[in-house]
Write a structure and sequence with these properties.
There is one protein chain. By secondary structure, the chain is an all-alpha fold. The chain has helices at 2-23, 25-28, 37-53, 63-71, 82-99, 106-118, 125-141, 146-150, 167-179. Helix 5 (82-99) packs parallel to helix 7 and helix 6 packs across helix 7 (125-141). The radius of gyration is 20 Å and the shape is globular. The model has no long low-confidence stretch (mean pLDDT 88).
Length: 180
């Protein structure tokens, strides 16, 4: 009897979470992104798997709503990869909550993730997780606290090790080559 009651409560909770995700469509449809009920259900299931995998628990609201609102205007997310990308991003989020020793607030981590996703990573979730967030979390574990003042904004330049191309220099060299 108790097991049935628990399962019923879990099912009701899941239905409520799915409805909350689908209600985000009111905001995201202006960016051409809409979750179906099935996709929302898959996201909730994926979230539960991520929570187990990273041994985390959530009290109150799910991080999925915030992820949706942070990333819905991304130039790199289209309808055909929307749900899949959200699944990847939520998994990355939980991983780096752990990797940063829970020192980052949700908003600091999401801000950092979104900025890198849109700039350095050009929408590549693997690069986001394996390079940008890895370096950021490593710095935080080593005692870096500058993100507290910035709220996670404009942090990666401090840890970026790759030589980036300079657009102005490129255009200058191109112009010189054309005039030869």
């Amino acid at each position: 009897m108790e097991d049935n009651m628990f399962e019923l409560l879990q099912l009701k909770k899941q239905e409520k979470e799915i409805a909350a995700l689908v209600s985000c469509n009111k905001e995201t449809e202006q960016f051409g992104l809409v979750l179906s009920n099935e996709e929302a259900k898959d996201l909730v299931i994926s979230r539960n798997e991520s929570l187990k995998k990273y041994q985390r628990i959530e009290f109150g609201e799910s991080i999925l709503d915030k992820l949706i609102y942070y990333f819905c205007d991304s130039q790199y997310i289209t309808q055909d990869i929307y749900a899949e990308t959200l699944m990847e991003l939520q998994d990355i989020f939980y991983l780096y909550k752990n990797e940063s020793g829970d020192l980052l607030t949700d908003d600091e981590l999401l801000t950092f993730m979104k900025e890198q996703f849109e700039s350095v990573c050009t929408g590549d979730t693997d690069y986001l997780a394996d390079t940008c967030l890895e370096r950021f979390a490593q710095a935080i574990r080593a005692g870096y606290t500058g993100y507290m003042e910035s709220g996670g904004h404009n942090e990666y330049e401090k840890f970026d090790e790759e030589q980036r191309w300079d657009k102005d220099l490129y255009l200058q060299v191109l112009a010189e080559l054309c005039w030869r």
